[in-house]
Each structure stands twice: as C-alpha cells, then as structure tokens.
Amino acid sequence: MKRFKKMIIGMLSVGLLAGCSGGGAATDSTDAASENKSEEVTVYFTRHGKTMLNTTGRSQGWSDAPLTPAGIEVAENVGTGIGDSIKFDKVYTSDSGRAIETAEILLDKAGQKVEINKDKRLREFNFGTFESTLGAESVEAIAKRKDLTADEYTEKAAKEGGGYNGFIKEISNDLAEIDKENVKENENWPAEDYDTVAKRSKAALDDIVKEANEDGDQSILVVSHGMTLVTLLNELDPSVASEIPMSGLENASISKAIYKDGKWKVETVNDMSYAEKGVKE
Description:
Blueprint: H1 2-14, E1 29-30, E2 41-47, H2 52-55, H3 69-82, E3 90-93, H4 97-110, E4 116-118, H5 135-145, H6 150-161, H7 164-179, H8 194-215, E5 219-224, H9 226-236, H10 238-241, E6 254-260, E7 263-271, H11 273-280
Parallel strand pairs: 2-5, 3-4, 3-5
Antiparallel strand pairs: 1-7, 2-6, 6-7
Helix pairs in contact: 1-5, 1-6, 3-4, 3-11, 5-6, 5-7, 6-7, 8-9
C-alpha cells in the first residue's frame, strides 16, 4: 500500500498528471461556449519543467520555484524539437514563474519571438494552508479526518476515483474541505476544490479560443500545470482524460487539442516526441 502513498505525495508535490503516451483520437466534445461556425484552432498544452520544490517533495500549487537544471534542459529540448515545425500565433501561460520560464526557454530554442500572455486562471490547484508543506502532511491530514491511515486513504481514493482525473477530484475535494478550518480572512486563500479549477481553467481556454477566432490565429501554445491540465483535458473530452495513467504528465510534455465549430477533439496526450527530437538535434 505504500506505493499509493508515494503516488499521492507525488501528485501534490510534482503535479504529475499524465496521459497516454502519444495519445490518440478522441471523441468530439461539443463546446457550449460557442454556437457559431469558426476556423480550426490547434492548442498545444504544455506542462512546465521540473522545479526545486518538485525535487524536495513539497506541495506546489500557487507557491512557486525556479526550474532545476533538468527542468531547463527539457524545456530547451522541446523548443529545439519544435523549431519551425509549429508556428505559434499566440502564447499563454499561468502567472506562475515556472510556467513563464518554461515558455520563454521553449520559444527561445524554437527561434520564435511571440509575446507571452499571462492568465492567473491557468494556475495550478491552490492547496491553501498546505502550500509548500511536505506532500505527506496533506495526505495524513485528510486520512486522519476519515479515521484512516495514510496508506488506507490513498488506496481508497485511487480505487474509488477510477481514472487519474477521478483520483484528482477525490483528493482535491477532500483537501479543500479540511482546509476550510484553516482559512483566516484576509490572511490566506483557501484550497481549491475540483469544480473551481475546472471552471476557471475552461473559462480561460474559452477566451483564448474566442480571441484566436477573432484574430485568425491557428496555433496556440498554453503552458500550465499538471493537475490543472488533466482537469482541463477532462473538460474537453472525458473519454480521453479517463484513460490517463497514474504515472503523471511528463515535464514539458505536449497535449494537442483541436477546436472547430464549437467542438473539441483531443488528439494526443503526454507527447514527448518533441523533447526526444530536440535531444538528437
């Protein structure tokens, strides 16, 4: 059962939320936000590179840390691998330094000068008063509330959650519930539940696509975070997100989705081919 505990600690500290390598064709998902015909827009979702807090096993949601040498290297490799094969019309990131740094490195190595638009709605889940604590502390706090050991709780959450997206939902909702007691007005922000992040990240994406259609843009880069990206992919197509394995999104992996006429189609998830290509070049 210890493997389940390690899994949840990894989720909170590293944000590893993954998809099927190389992905696959997904069922079309209708977007209620737009009923008008539109040009095709391709969005490349990228997870930030590894950070210093990732390496120390600490929860990293709204808290931030710079990329490690390995985190910088993988972002460089992805940028080199992309090169001029994809011309980004616009680039969006969360307002977290690690996402911005990843985008800057990627664009530099790809030889593309594109303004970076920062949107706080693309942030990672907020873990409230558990921000920057050791991941084990979050697990133990939830488990204690349910009269379970940490191992028992993580095993139960993994089983009942089903796919990794369901697992995220179980954990984030439980953490948000117990963190309510720790919130002090005007002193801290409460931990976010699943629906809060799903709504804010989807609203950000709706605005991104709307602007792309208005400006005639075709290729968009979005640099965000592990848990948020899986939640967002689930909003676009639940059939794809439910297949995401428990191993987690790779740092700087690419997930590709196409939007046309109010519908989304997720084509690939957790694609590391650009990073691999960059290593060889």
